[in-house]
Amino acid sequence: MENPPFKTIHASVRPARVATLVDKSDEDWQHTCLRVIEFYSRIWGGGHNIIIPTDGKQIDERFWKLLEAFDPDHLYRYGKSGEDIFLSNPGKYKEWLEEQVQHNIKQDSTSRVKAIRAEIDTVLRRAWIIGPFNITAALQGEIKKRIAPFWFEQYAVSPGAITADAAPPWPLTRIAKIISHTEHPNGVGVIVVPTSLLPTLWFSAVTGRLSPTGIAEFEEHEITRNVFEFGEDNISELVEFTITGATRRRRASPPSTTLIDLGAVTPFNISMLQLGLYRSVRYEAWREPILAIVGNALEDFCLFYCLARLRNGVVWVLPSIAERALGPNPDAALSASEISFLFQLRDAERSAESEGRITCMSYSLSSTDIDKVIAQLNRYEAGRFSNPIRKSDKLEPLIRFPISPAERDTFQKDLVLQFIDDRSVSPFATPKPKHFDPVHPSEHRYITQLSIVTDAPPKHPQLGLSILGLPGYTTEQVRVGKDGPAYLCPNMMYFGGDIDSVLVRPRLHLPQLHKILEELAEKQGYECRPSDKGIYADESISKWGGLDEIGRFLRGPQHRALLDHFLDDSKSESGRGVYLSDKRRYLDLAAISSHVGDDAVRLIDELVPKGILYRGFIFGCSYCRNADWFSVADVTQEFKCRRCGRTQVYRKRNWKEGDEPIWFYKLDELVYQGYRHNMDVSLLALTHLKAQAQESFTFATDREFWKAGADKPTVEADFFCVPDGVLTVGEAKIEGSLGSSASEEREKITKYKRLADKLCARQLVLATLNPEWRPETAAAVRSAFAESPYVRILFLSAAQLL
To answer: Can you give the pLDDT at residue 108?
Structure first.
């Protein structure tokens, strides 16, 4: 019996990642975003959560990319209440309040005006403002497929809403509740700046901001408010902190303590208590540009806010600079804040941590408008940049290695588990926060993030429960995201005791991809089976010793020519082997050498022990004249004719040429059948995709999907794989088309689309050995998947495969 396999699991302790959806038509969006920032400032890890604009029906594809890179556990929508009007437009709120008061006074004989006003004020500020901003069922479903967050029934976005000054809902962790259980500052910063100097949202997006209720919550734990007032004389310090996240001592004057204190006590810094920021070691920070987001629309702010949580070196260009550049008087004098901004941006560009590049990006502005803003950035002579400022509209290169917050010293700790029948032998030792003492189970909730080295399961909304299998847990507490399985800790329920008494410890279930496909297919009413071609491919991979080995072999043109020769059905001739009545060709050393040259002997010695080639002889029967190939294992001094059944000693007359029998080599039958059915295209595509994967890769070969009682499969796919958590469906063709006619192609494309939808696949790969895909085929595929933008279409041709 083989030893049970061992798997290496990376485990991290991290806060929940949250994305809040806001109404893109909101005219008071600056105030709405401030309310979301106030909400984030009250939760553990809130400084690295994101804000996404939407109309409730769809999300712009650029923000989908940001959402997928961020990979939120929870999504909420922001619902406006009377408190929003009170904060954003006090005059309007006062009129509304007085209308309600006067209406009620007429109906109240006691005329308790003061009491009635107070009661109505409380009700109005808590009351939701009924509007069109709700998340549709279609968008809920798309979020579930694309993001696979914690979800329940039809809700991928929580059915409730975040409102102004509302307490963070369960299961988020309030930072004020856990701050006293670890080292912490004794104060929390409150920044006071005239709006004529700096927009509140501009710096609050970096520093965080607390509502009066949030401040009171800290004060209950003896953490006092530290007020920092900024004016014309010191506004440059706040600008510097907002751009760089740090401050430097002045050279010509006594050092200011303002910035040193501010860096320790900003609400967002406190929200990141005992957390570190981590990213892939492949990230080359010095090669990354400083990213300047230009524009004063909600989408521009959200673009900045999200990118600043996914990477370093992101700046929102002061709104006044953009407004001046696009206004009638671009040459007007710069304010102190604007001059400071330009100096700090220039210094950041020239720093040793950057190669000296600034890239501008915008959601709302045209290329021409961005040029005007760049000209405005360059107009101040003393703040000249060392390199020209560039423009870009491509997000993917900027977020390929996103930042991820996790508790310090508990990021991706290696644990080795033993598995039997795909399930861990012992329960998983769930980690707990190391820097908090005590960790109170009812107050300190966190996420245990697992990543499985090399063979991670796909990100998928249906896999969390089967992989983690925690009793009593639902999809609201377990998920498989882009980094792997994640689950809520310490436990969903708490009835007393310390954390060790309630800490969940799952027995992990990590099946191979083909079993995952069977599970997903069953949920959709299908049976997933390996096809004949899949069996041939699996056996061939096994014989070569792995996907990399067979892929390397197939990429050699001389090796492919050799395999092609085994499929040749032309008549036998000297130097080209022998074609027999069993419709198979057998090659001798001369025939093999004609393809691989001097490497023939080494190649034979490599392939024979692996069972890919078999040595044997070709003998002709002395009685019935039938010629057959006989394995060396089937002959002694005699051979038995397969047609007439006579046993005879082989002599010179039983072979055609030479004084001694010649070795002839047979290609293994399963390899032969697989190659004849074009398995090489699938295997070459899988090899290419594996080479492109950054962290993990699993695959399965050709699979068929059957409906109960059907006499043929509903759909077949040539391969599946999971590069870096992305479930991928693949189709492989020798030719560069999917069928002999447009109707045949449409039928196949429809099947691929249905399969991708049913399995929640995120990528469709079409591979061919042709130099390129037929343009009409590529256009038809893109058109069919236009309504499913979350499925990436990747066309591979000979240039990538060979």
So the answer is: 56
Q: In the chain, what are the helix, strand and coil shares in percent, each to the nearest 5?
A: 40, 20, 40
* CATH code for the domain defined by 522-530+678-801: 3.40.1350
Contact yes or no for 701/533 (Cβ under 8 A): yes
The answer to whether 345 touches 377, Cβ cutoff 8 Å, is: yes
Torsion sign across C-alpha atoms 273, 274, 278, 284: positive
Give φ, ψ of 592 to 5 degrees.
-65, -40
CB within 8 Å of 510: residues ≥ 6 apart: 7, 419, 422, 423, 424, 452, 455, 457, 467
Model pLDDT, residue 390: 92
777/741 Cα distance (integer angstroms): 10
- What tokens does 571 get? 């008549």
The whole-angstrom separation of Cα 49 and Cα 40 is 7
Q: What is the pLDDT of residue 562?
A: 96
The C-alpha atoms of residue 291 and residue 395 are separated, in whole angstroms, by 11
What H or E segment, with its residue span, contains residue 188? strand 187-192
Question: Do 28 and 88 contact (CB within 8 A), yes or no?
Answer: yes
Q: Mean pLDDT in runs of 10 for the chain (802 residues)?
A: 74 97 95 97 97 97 96 96 82 76 65 71 71 89 95 92 91 96 92 94 97 94 91 91 73 43 88 93 84 97 98 95 92 89 88 75 96 89 78 91 93 88 92 93 94 90 93 94 95 79 92 96 94 96 97 96 95 88 95 94 96 96 94 94 94 87 96 96 98 93 94 95 96 94 93 94 97 96 92 96 94
**Segment holding 352, helix H or strand E:** none
Closest CA to 737 of 771, 785, 787: 771
Separation between Cα atoms, residue 44 and residue 273, nearest integer Å = 7
pLDDT the model gives residue 250: 44
Residue among 727, 724, 148, 720 nearest 454 (CA) = 724
Tell me the one-letter amino acid at 138: A
Q: 191: which 2 tokens?
A: 């920044």
How far is residue 333's CA from residue 493's CA, in Å, rounded to a whole number?
61
- Report the C-alpha gap between 176 and 40 in whole angstroms: 12
Alpha helices, DSSP H, located in 351-451: 367-377
* pLDDT reported for residue 4: 62
Residue 501's SS3 state is: helix
The letter for the amino acid at 53 is: P
Cβ–Cβ under 8 Å, residues 780 and 764: no
Q: Which residues of 96-114 are buried (b: 16+ CB within 10 A; e: fewer)?
A: bbeebbeeeeeeeeeeeee
- For residue 672, the tally of other CB atoms under 10 A from its CB is 18
* pLDDT of res. 40: 98
Query: What CA–CA distance (Å, rounded) separates 205 from 174?
Result: 19
3 state SS for 130-186? CCCCCCCHHHHHHHHHHHCCCCECCECCCCCCECCCCCCCCCCCEHHHHHHHCCCCC
pLDDT score of 150:
97
Longest dimension (CA), the chain: 127
**Nearest-angstrom CA–CA distance, 192 and 718:** 62
Domain range list for the chain? 17-230+242-272, 280-398, 404-511, 522-530+678-801, 546-609+613-667
Tokens 């806001």 label which residue? 22
How many Å apart are CA 739 and CA 746, to the nearest integer? 9
For the CA atoms of 370, 373, 375, 377, what is the dihedral angle to 10 degrees? -130
Query: pTM of the entire structure?
Result: 0.90
Is the distance from CB of 78 to CB of 35 less than 8 angstroms?
A: yes
Please count the CA atoms within 13 angstroms of the CA of 272 that sit on its side-chain side: 21
| 172, two tokens | 């988020």
